[in-house]
Design brief:
Order of helices and strands: EEHEHEEHEHEEEE
Strand order of the largest sheet: 5-4-3-6-1-7-10-9
CATH class: Alpha Beta
CATH architecture: 3-Layer(aba) Sandwich
Number of domains: 1
CATH superfamily: Dihydrofolate Reductase, subunit A
Strand content: 25-35%
Radius of gyration: 16 Å
CATH topology: Dihydrofolate Reductase, subunit A
Largest sheet: 8 strands, mixed
Shape: globular
């Protein structure tokens, strides 16, 4: 029952720029709109667990709601989801282990873990089974980092690496237990 991260980072390890922006994700031309494996990845997923910041970022995109899977938003500060998204997302809180227990009890076993702080909290409790990291060839020089300090070393093994658009590297890692 894997908990999987699917995320893009800059060469210097950031998931957003100094202003919280994501425009840098479009820095490599993609005329054919290659989805970087996202469609295949999401087919493996039962539900999405994301942090409040990621949820608010997605809500501010000028697109239709992008998810067909249930979305659970981790937040200790939100009391309610905006009316427009109430049918699309649900608030959840607790420790990562408590959240996993609750979602597993509800029949969600294969989870997409998204958002920097959320990913970091799941890693701190050793609850990430796979990392799919797409590295964009840009140095942001600051912003939000994907990884933070951990209480112990976590070993992963490389499952595969793919070159996308002749410029982007996507690496898939699995937790060694």
């Amino acid at each position: 029952m894997p908990n999987i991260v699917f995320i893009a980072i800059s060469l210097d390890g950031y998931i957003s720029d100094k202003n919280g922006g994501l425009d840098w994700l479009q820095s490599v031309p993609n005329p054919e709109n290659n989805d970087m494996g996202y469609a295949n990845f999401i087919e493996r997923i039962d539900a999405i667990v994301m942090g409040r910041n990621t949820f608010e970022t997605v809500c501010n995109f000028d697109i239709d709601w992008p998810y067909e899977r249930p979305v659970f938003v981790l937040s200790t500060t939100l009391n309610t989801i905006q009316e427009k998204y109430k049918e699309k997302a649900e608030l959840i809180n607790g420790s990562p282990a408590d959240i996993l227990y609750e979602l597993n009890q509800r029949g969600y076993y294969r989870l997409y873990i998204d958002g920097g702080t959320t990913i970091q909290s799941f890693l701190k409790e050793d609850l990430i089974d796979e990392l799919i990291i797409t590295t964009i060839p840009i140095l942001l020089g600051g912003g939000s980092r994907l990884f933070a300090d951990l209480p112990k070393e976590l070993k992963f093994e490389l499952i595969g690496t793919e070159v996308l658009l002749n410029k982007i590297i996507q690496s898939h890692y699995k937790r060694k237990r």
